[in-house]
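Entry 14. Structure prediction run on the chain below.
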Amino acid sequence: MEDGAGAREATVARIDQDDARAELVATLLDKVQQDQYPSTTMLDLIEELLTPEETPAYVVFLQDRIRSESYPSIPLLKRLTALV
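Output returned:
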């Protein structure tokens, strides 16, 4: 029977790099969705980690966020503009 650390290492070994990257992006997007004022650092990290296939979904994510705000931030608008 494996101890907790051994089981964790076995699980980590089964996750490939792309799966880990995608999971990190999903975690950061969840956090950004919950935060009224998302961290610029988190948004920068998301954009660094995105694949070209994921970028359109991220653009929609930002557009939805901007639509939901009465006064969207200028940096968020500029960020979206840079992606399209």
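The chain has a mean pLDDT of 87.
Filed with the rest of this week's runs.
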